[in-house]
Amino acid sequence: MYHTGIVEIAVAEDIVQEAFALASEKWHNGIPERPDAWLYKTIRNTAYNLLKKEGRQFDHNLMADDQHSESEQESLRVLFGFIQPELTPKVQLIIALRNVSGLKVQRIAALLASDENTITKILYRWKIQRKSQNLNLSVSVTDPGEQKIRTALKILYLMFTEGYRLSDDGQLNDETLCEDALCLAKEMVNLKICANGEVKSLYALMLYNLARASSRLNALNELIPLAEHDRSGWNQQMIGVANQYFLQSQKESTNLEMYQLEASIAYLHITAQTFQQTKWHLIIRLYDKLMVCNPSPFTALSHAAALYFSGDHASALKILDQLKSNPFFQTNHLLHCLYAKIALHKNDHTNAVTSFKKALNCKLSTLEMNFVKKELQLVDMHLTR
Amino acid sequence: MQKFLFLIREDLDRLSQMSEQELEQDIAEMNSWVEELIKFDNFISGDPLENASRIVGRQVATDGMFIDSKEGISGYFIIKAANMEQAVAIATQCPHIVQGKISIEVRQIMETPQ
Question: Which of A130, A120, A117 has the alpha carbon at shortest distance from A94?
Fold first, then answer.
């Protein structure tokens, strides 16, 4: 729609709707040879007429020859155009999923474990608010401003994480979402948007994760712990590309920020030949820094896990105890699983069982549930022996 | 990202008279909201507070808003947000705000230069 010079979302939607209405009328006698081109032309003409009627300029420079030039850059333009740092991240994610990835409300609700009604309401409220504030899509795609760039990176990471989660059948929750996030991040790289190296760092981080996606499960579709991942199954080609961007990001940044720290941690995991050879002391130092620049309970938990793997159980327990005293984090199964693991190391099977049982009481996916059950069984077997 | 303090104010008398069941319901509602804050990486920390309070030092002059009523601070959160507007938007979605049970004072935490 941007190609026509129409920047108001409501008007753009009306025009597209009109084109489809016209199509349903005209296509009765047979569908045109290239239905997409037909639609594009119709939309273009309607927009042209509308702009002429309003005495506005039809920008021929923006005009593309056909819809195939509709590129990543346009998606990025829509993303930047729709970003409002004053909305909550959840609302911004929903807006991006609807308007950038083009997902249906039903799909968004399923992805976010919400109901359609809630999503529809959020989108409706947002539209009204945009209309009343006269916001439009005309934003510079190369220089949208620092805050929009930062918010975009966060939305892309959320988008990627939603897609990257494993669904109950052991598949990626939504591979297209991961691809969308990667393409948009890549487009930011292409446009030389740098944000202190954070753009390339995020791109590398997502690739590092995707390269290891399939090794999260064994042949029986069961979750396996990081220590037992089949490292030969990691996508080395993808890792190679990620390494390039990661190294470039280091040259671009003056100080370490969140995505570069996360990418550095992923890099250390990936470059370890075996799990035992992981450089835990370096990873722990990175988590120390991450806790300063982006503190969160999840980061604290990963920090504790790294300390546990390095053999420093006392420091790990200190972090876990702090997390456990947080009334809002007791429903996290990984917290209890880590307690169980530490108890097992001390041959304290009774407490390990208690912790695994607590983990089972948390909100778990089917895969996670089976994983914890299996761990619990192993300890139980040991106890009854 | 900037840090913000959410000060939760509500009717402390009502809070102390709540039944076990009501209290559990209250906590469950708050938990699901915080779970979402954690998921979207806005949460840093937070705790509910006990009802008892003592004030030491000189009496702070107020406009009397909280003196007559039984309003008091019942809890706090520390969150991360892009700006004040986003922090306010996040606070607005708290289920107890939606139900009109509490009020939240949103304050940006001053950044001390390193």
Answer: A120
